[in-house]
Amino acid sequence: MTLLSCLLPFVLLASFQFLTGSSLKNHHGHVQRGKPMFQTNQTTCALFSGTWVRDDTYPLYKYSDCPLIDAEFNCQMYGRPDSDYLKYRWQPLGRVLPRFNGLVFLSKMRGKHVMFVGDSLGRNQWESLICMVSASAPKMKTQMSRGDPLSTLKFIDYGLSVSFYRAPYLVDIDMVGGRRILKLEDIHAHGNAWRIADVLVFNTGHWWSHKGSLQGWDLIETGGKYYKDIDRLVALEKGLRTWANWVDTNVDRTKTRVFFQSISPTHYDPSEWSTRATTMATKNCYGETTPMTGTTYPGTYPDQKRVVDEVIREMYVPTYLLNITMLSELRKDGHPSIYSGDLSPAQRANPDRSADCSHWCLPGLPDTWNELFYAALFH
Ligand SMILES: *[C@@H]1O[C@H](CO)[C@@H](O)[C@H](O)[C@H]1NC(C)=O
Ligand SMILES: *[C@@H]1O[C@H](CO)[C@@H](O)[C@H](O)[C@H]1NC(C)=O
Fold this sequence. Notes:
The protein has one domain. The chain is 29% helix and 18% strand. The chain has helices spanning 2-15, 41-45, 102-108, 120-136, 188-194, 206-209, 232-250, 303-313, 325-329, 345-348, 351-354, 365-378; strands at 23-25, 31-33, 50-54, 88-92, 113-118, 142-145, 150-155, 160-166, 173-176, 179-183, 199-202, 219-222, 225-227, 257-261, 319-322. The radius of gyration is 20 Å and the shape is globular. Mean pLDDT is 88; it is low at 1-43. The chain binds 2-acetamido-2-deoxy-beta-D-glucopyranose (2 copies). The site of one 2-acetamido-2-deoxy-beta-D-glucopyranose has 4 residues, from helix 2. It holds the Pfam family PMR5N. It is a single-pass membrane protein. This is Protein trichome birefringence-like 45. Its main location: membrane.
């Protein structure tokens, strides 16, 4: 298991020299020619275990310099009073994460199309990446087209497009006779739109467990039959296998790189991170201002993540798991809580019911996901 998870990225790096040509720069900017790519095996493997360390050179951009940030992620604009949560850097075990350089990103990705596909956590990461790149090149001409399901920001001088494609289940969901049918074996309506991308970053998870008024479908279709509900983990696995099969049969592994953002954790249960939980004033992430110390989160390994790990392990097209679950679990302080612009004043007055402990503030944690994405792409 450990060996496999370490080998996968290494196989991937070896087979994807196309983005950078035959030469790669090392951390000091020196070009290395003709050296075997597999020397990165250990370092890549160690990216996702580590600790959060205080670093006053962060954040990488200011919210006021990035007008694109959606209200629901724009914590400082909506009154978040503390700022320590912005001053942490992810320190992997045994190596330093390369510093994100937007100009390097632009020039290496010239003429390419990077597409995030999934739910609002993918949108969180998409907006973060655009803010990070824009901060390095503030005068750059850009063009935004917003739509549903596809929104694209184009960096015109570099011909680079960075998109978000909304598909919370990845598989298709169709309206039939006024009812929303989630089709666990169907993905072509969405998939056709993904073919233009050179780099795809997928995610899914949260919508598979939503119930009641938050549930996104009326019926599930699988194996030619319709169901009001089925076991949610079984549904996730069927949907993911449909997705994996689409990738394996439609993605040219010599031209397109595929990433999967692992499950992004929520913080609605303080007993996971505090022994004082029973005496605490609030019932979620509200009021949390510092990350957990140490390298592991005391909560349980999410069942959904086990399913994701297994499906990805069995794929033919090497899919790089952006394994951000654990490092994000340590960031109970990173959520919008009541400082989401989507909340009404009445909701803000009631943190127990309304705090958003699922998305992440920008600037904030998704910037680290993108530093890892950057490291996986180029280092
Ligand atoms: C890469 O992994 C292989 C096999 O595990 C090992 O023999 C080799 O020493 C590693 N290379 C580096 C540079 O760590
Ligand atoms: C993901 O990273 C965690 C540490 O953060 C590690 O325990 C786990 O094995 C990794 N999972 C995979 C599939 O690589």
